[in-house]
Amino acid sequence: MTEGNPVVSEKPQLTLYRQPESLGAAEDLDFALELLQRARSGRLGPCLRLYRPQPTVAFGQRDAKLPGFAAAEEACRVRGFEPLVRKAGGRAAAYHQGTLVIDHVEPHPDAIVRAKARFSQFGELLAGALRGVGVHAAVGEIPGEYCPGEFSVHGEDPDFPAHRIKLIGTAQRVVSGGWLFSSVIVVEDSGPIRDVLTATYDALGLEWDPATAGAANDLLPHVDVTAVEAAVVDAYRAYGDIHDGDFRTLLP
């Protein structure tokens, strides 16, 4: 055994907060921004928040300015989805209790540094988590996908590789003193998501390919949110040292 200074881990210390139930569609989105504000002001350290959301369609800022936005909102409501406008960019994305939302928050003195690199880094991390449960997943936009993004994660049908579906969308908000990286993994029950997105995009007058909307269990029938959550946590262990936290301590 060699003498000398102890080896100090360069990994961030991440507190994992499992949110047991949705706070409400709007409240869940707002709480992510609240956590970011706490981080930037030094009241919260690096953390992960995992939860299963209520049925929601999160519109981008540009969507809200289109002539068909009111009709799109109504199309969501009649299908049991709450229409909301998120702070981040992009186009409309839908999620429900068959999805897993990951909010990764960290304080940082110069948060804009590596902002784009985070999309690639965490896209690859999450694609690896899906591969860990047996899904053929990779990073990259597929033609015609909803809420298109260069670093979306898609899955392939092993029997028909040309059939690819979007499984994960990511978004980032950077402020002075911290960043929030949010990811939504569609794991189960893709039918309602495909249906509400079809009606929403029709109302907005936006073209897309409904065949690109799906869930992980469309490709691997036995997979569920519980298995994907465990795989995500395992994948994050390569990024940081994870410690369990009590979500109740974050509430007012």
Q: Which SSEs are present, and which pair or pack?
A:
Blueprint (H helix, E strand, L loop, with lengths): L12 E6 L6 H16 L6 E5 L4 E4 L9 H10 L3 E4 L7 E3 L3 E9 L7 H18 L3 E4 L13 E5 L2 E16 L2 E9 L3 H15 L11 H4 L5 H12 L4 E5 L7
Parallel strand pairs: 1-2, 1-11, 3-4
Antiparallel strand pairs: 2-6, 3-5, 6-10, 7-8, 8-9, 9-10
Helix pairs in contact: 2-4, 3-6
Describe this structure in words.
The chain is an alpha/beta fold and 252 residues long. It contains six helices and eleven strands. The chain has helices at residues 25-40, 69-78, 115-132, 190-204, 216-219, 225-236, and strands at 13-18, 47-51, 56-59, 82-85, 93-95, 99-107, 136-139, 153-157, 160-175, 178-186, 241-245. The strands form two sheets. It has an eight-stranded mixed β-sheet with strand order 7-8-9-10-6-2-1-11, sandwiched between helices. Strands 4-3-5 form a three-stranded mixed β-sheet, covered by helices on one side. A hairpin with a 2-residue loop joins strand 9 (160-175) and strand 10 (178-186). The chain is globular, with a radius of gyration of 18 Å. The N and C termini lie far apart (49 Å). The model has no long low-confidence stretch (mean pLDDT 94).
Keywords:
single chain; 252 residues; 6 helices; 8-stranded mixed β-sheet; 3-stranded mixed β-sheet; alpha/beta
Give the DSSP E fraction (strand runs of 2 or more residues). Answer: 25-35%
What's the helix-strand series? EHEEHEEEHEEEEHHHE
* Helix content estimate: 25-40%
Structural class: alpha/beta
Cα shape: globular
Strand order of the largest sheet: 7-8-9-10-6-2-1-11
Output the number of helix runs.
6
